[in-house]
Amino acid sequence: MSTRVSVRDRLIDWAEERLPLSELFSFLSHFGFVTVPLDTRQPLRALLAHLDQSAMPDHVRGPQILGALMAMLFGFEALTGVLLAFHYRPTSEAAHESTLAIVRDIPVGGLIHALHAWGATLLVLVVVLRLARLFWDGLWRAPRELLWMSAVALVWLSMQFSFTGGLLPWDVNGYWSTVRGLEVVYALPLVGPVLSFLLGGRVIGEDVLTRFFVLHVVVLPMFWTAALYVTFATLRRTGLGQTTLQVPNRRTTTFREHRHDLALVALFLFAVLVTLAVLVPFPFGAAADPYSTPASARPPWYMGAVFVVQEHVPLGSWFVGGILLVLAFGVLTLPWWAPRAEAKLGEARLRLAGLATIAVWLVLSLLAVLLDRP
Ligand code: HEM
């Protein structure tokens, strides 16, 4: 009796004779796409068949969805970003014109541009939400310190992505939002002088645009991928333990079902992004004019809280900046000092303190948008 071999299987067999496919696949699995142990001596087809029937651990299953959303959004941004980079030109003379050409003349260019911009906003929201969730569930405690630190790094890197990307279209909104954002950073002790040195001065011109472009498409993607790797690698080692999001007595899911679930989530995410991009096109203004400041110029929303404090708290911007830096360092090193705070305050109060901090941050961000409006 002859058994039919599908085209996919024949392709795998063909490649298997020429490449160590199972080993390559296991390399990919380090990124957390596969969370069960693999026997890389097996041929890839046998390994995939075994995998399909394997049970997935709890920490990769719904409702724990923010990590998967974050990784998907980044993949989506990388894909649309590379497509944009085919037509984008990173010089102060050509940046605005080339972005305008993407939005106006290139087939589906406007959609890809809007998808990239909306994807960026969602990514920043998702990484911030994920950090709040990790805090709420105490997932900063030993042995998950690196999970927490990589989550903080991912928030910071996503904001840098969004910040450097904002300048690239070289339109009046992005340009002046970058000017205000850099003013916020320049007012910080230590960080301000170092950044101004790295960017080659405080004037935003050709040099800064080129440096932002290199940061945006080369340096930040490398760091982001490294932080994502640390996230998945620590998760594979430590799992999530008991969390508030666990569903009790749930039946076991196989890798095959999990793959389908992920495909559905990806499809839903894509639908949300397309809907946003079509119904609410991202604002794209006239070419930047360094000599005329629009009255509504504000830093990006996620820097708004710092902006408001620096502008309206009368203590000297270096002093205020210093306090903010200490706070940022405090968030990063939370796993080392929070256990003592928790022993004094109790778990519930520490959680509330975290929630209150996020609420203050959100209110200040809102004030930054509303205060001194023309
Ligand atoms: C990983 C690879 C990426 C590449 C190659 C890339 C490439 C680009 C390019 C060429 C532009 C300028 C063209 C345009 O504005 O339409 C741009 C803009 C932008 N990028 Fe990216 N990008 C990447 C990832 C990201 C990520 C992860 C974020 C978000 C957090 C992001 C946020 C932005 C933003 C906010 C803009 C400005 C959009 C606008 O307001 O017009 N990018 N990117």
What would you note in describing this structure?
It is globular and about 75 Å long. It has helices at residues 7-16, 21-33, 44-53, 66-85, 95-104, 109-136, 145-167, 172-186, 191-199, 206-238, 255-279, 304-312, 317-332, 334-345, 347-370. It has 374 residues and is an all-alpha fold. Helices cover 69% and strands 0% of the residues. Protoporphyrin IX containing FE is lined by residues 74, 77-78, 81-82, 84-85, 88, 99, 102, 113, 116-117, 120, 123-124, 158, 161-162, 165-166, 168-169, 174, 216-217, 221, 282, 284.
CATH class of the domain at 62-173 and 211-238 and 252-286: Mainly Alpha
Overall radius of gyration? 23 Å
By DSSP (H or I, 4+ residues per run), the number of helices equals: 15
Mean pLDDT across all residues, rounded?
A: 90
Q: How many strand segments?
A: 0
Biggest β-sheet strands, sense, barrel: none
Find the structural class using helix and strand composition.
mainly alpha
Question: Architecture of the domain at 62-173 and 211-238 and 252-286, according to CATH?
Answer: Up-down Bundle
* Residue share in β-strands: under 5%
The ordered string of helix (H) and strand (E) elements is: HHHHHHHHHHHHHHH
> CATH topology of the domain at 62-173 and 211-238 and 252-286, which one?
Cytochrome Bc1 Complex, Chain C
Overall morphology: globular
Relevant CATH superfamily of the domain at 62-173 and 211-238 and 252-286: Cytochrome Bc1 Complex, Chain C
Q: Cofactors and ligands present? A: protoporphyrin IX containing FE
Tell me the helix content: 55-70%
| Uncertain regions spanning at least 5 consecutive residues | none
Q: For the terminal residues, how far apart are their CA atoms?
A: 81 Å
